[in-house]
Write a sequence for this structure.
């Protein structure tokens, strides 16, 4: 009887033990998944933040460089006409100010003494200013002279109000065509920083991310804050450099807590899991499997580790959108390997895989860090290059690709030789839509393949 009672007690206890076990397993799984979700959320935020500040960087660099490009005309004029007069400078300066919404004023200082300012209204007191005698401005001026190139100083608080960036460029001119060049003086362009930032889309919070920029006077991480606050920069999950002539800024982004969606909250998994533990255990197992199946693999080629066609199409789409906003062109290259099948037939598929990995490595080494190399098929690759403006520039890259891929690959003591056919198209010069761009580059690749076969 005692044994029966003992067995009965044990049988009654088993369900509770099972429930306790399920609870323990549920807690373990919940905490485990919580960590994975937090890591995944962090990676998603990093990717999204990188996209946000990449676009901001492109727009900032474009806005700054467009202003500097406009001002280069006046500087070039003074360089070849060192004895010209303020009356001759004024029309050029007026055109620069008229053409840019960001230029506050332009000054020229022969022998480091300001003799010309446009517009003169409100800047009368600047005429006659000797930079060498000005304690506040001389260090930045001397830095530009010592470097012998443009230096972008600031942002600084302008006397007329607002923040300004000052682009100072030393001018070197020749008194005679055959005479050596000598230091003529300094050109300065005052840029409305607030207008430039607004035009580039820069704000304290952009698409849910707080933005900060450091590098006053183009000193990068060694400079003071340009935009935002130090705390945002210190806690940034991604950073990028903003490059311009003579210096750089460093831009950082971190998620804004007030803009973070509820589904990305830190304790959502615990809240749901501990409320519906038994049901959620099964759902979390499915979620883990889905997470592993999609984690980083859907966008990359398993053999070479390169982006695949899906990721390449996304990046092309991003550049087409960027072109509509900034006018930046880009080139798309289609690459097909010639005589690749005989490699597999003669040496085996392991040799073919080695060749494909080597092709990917060579293409990555050949192009810039900002370019994208993708494997889009068995022996097909694509290269995406931003900021390619001319057919000759794209053709030079295509020729270099064919040259680099024509070099033999070593495999187990054998020299394996292949070649490549490259076709390219430039957006929007050759095609103004993604589909037409891809079709044209593909057609040109097959035309190049036929050309190579015809001359073989």
């Amino acid at each position: 009887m005692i044994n029966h009672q003992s067995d009965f007690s044990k049988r009654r206890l088993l369900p509770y033990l099972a429930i306790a076990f399920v609870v323990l397993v549920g807690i373990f799984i919940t905490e485990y998944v919580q960590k994975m979700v937090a890591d995944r959320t962090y990676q998603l935020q990093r990717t999204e933040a990188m996209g946000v500040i990449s676009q901001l960087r492109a727009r900032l660099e474009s806005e700054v460089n467009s202003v500097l490009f406009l001002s280069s005309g006046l500087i070039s004029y003074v360089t070849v006409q060192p004895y010209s007069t303020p009356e001759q400078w004024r029309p050029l300066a007026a055109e620069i100010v008229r053409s840019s919404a960001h230029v506050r004023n332009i000054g020229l200082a022969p022998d480091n003494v300001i003799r010309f300012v446009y517009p003169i209204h409100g800047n009368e007191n600047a005429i006659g200013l000797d930079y060498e005698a000005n304690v506040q401005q001389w260090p930045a001026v001397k830095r530009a002279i010592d470097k012998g190139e443009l230096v972008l100083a600031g942002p600084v608080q302008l006397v007329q109000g607002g923040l300004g960036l000052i682009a100072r460029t030393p001018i070197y001119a020749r008194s005679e065509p055959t005479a050596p060049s000598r230091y003529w003086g300094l050109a300065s362009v005052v840029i409305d920083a607030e207008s430039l930032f607004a035009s580039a889309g820069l704000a304290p919070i952009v698409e849910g991310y707080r933005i900060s920029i450091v590098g006053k006077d183009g000193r990068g991480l060694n400079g003071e804050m340009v935009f935002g606050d130090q705390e945002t920069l210190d806690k940034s999950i991604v950073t990028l450099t903003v490059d311009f002539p003579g210096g750089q800024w460093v831009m950082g982004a971190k998620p804004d807590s007030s803009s973070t969606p509820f589904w990305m909250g830190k304790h959502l998994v615990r809240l749901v899991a501990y409320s519906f533990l038994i049901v959620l255990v099964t759902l979390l197992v499915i979620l883990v499997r889905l997470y592993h199946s999609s984690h980083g693999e859907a966008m990359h080629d398993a053999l070479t580790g390169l982006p695949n066609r899906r990721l390449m199409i996304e990046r092309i789409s991003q550049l087409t959108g960027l072109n509509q906003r900034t006018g930046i062109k880009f080139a798309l290259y289609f690459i097909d390997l010639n005589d690749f099948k005989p490699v597999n037939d003669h040496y085996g598929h392991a040799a073919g895989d080695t060749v494909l990995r080597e092709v990917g490595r060579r293409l990555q080494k050949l192009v810039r860090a900002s370019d994208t190399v993708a494997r889009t098929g068995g022996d097909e690759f694509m290269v995406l290059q931003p900021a390619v403006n001319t057919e000759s520039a794209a053709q030079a890259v295509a020729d270099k690709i064919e040259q680099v891929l024509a070099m033999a690959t070593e495999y187990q003591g054998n020299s394996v030789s292949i070649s490549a056919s490259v076709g390219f198209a430039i957006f929007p010069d050759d095609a103004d839509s993604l589909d037409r761009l891809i079709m044209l580059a593909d057609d040109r690749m097959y035309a190049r393949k036929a050309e190579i076969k015809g001359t073989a």
